[in-house]
Amino acid sequence: MQHCDPETLALVALEPETLGHQDQTHLQECKTCRTEYESFRSTVDIGRSGPKELVPPPPATWTAIAEATHTPRLRSLPGGAAASATTQSASDTAGPTRRGWLPLAAAAMIGAIVGGAAMTGVAVNQNDAPIAQPSATPSITSATALQPLPEGGRDTASTGNAAVASTDTGETLGISTASLEATDGYYEVWLIDPETMQMFSIGSIAAGDQDSVLPIPAGVDLDQYSVVDISDEPLNGDPTHSKVSVLRGQLPA
Amino acid sequence: MSVATLLEAAPPGAWDTMRVTDVDVEQLGYRLVSGDHSALEESYQRWGALIHTIAYRSLGDADEAADVTQNTFISAWNGRESFNPEMGNVPAWLTGIARRRIADSYRRTPRQREVAVAEIGDTRPAVGTANADPTRVVDQVVLADELDELGEPARSIIQLAFYQDLTHQQVAHKLDLPLGTVKSHIRRSLTRLRDRLEVTHAAL
Question: pTM of the prediction?
Answer without folding.
Answer: 0.55
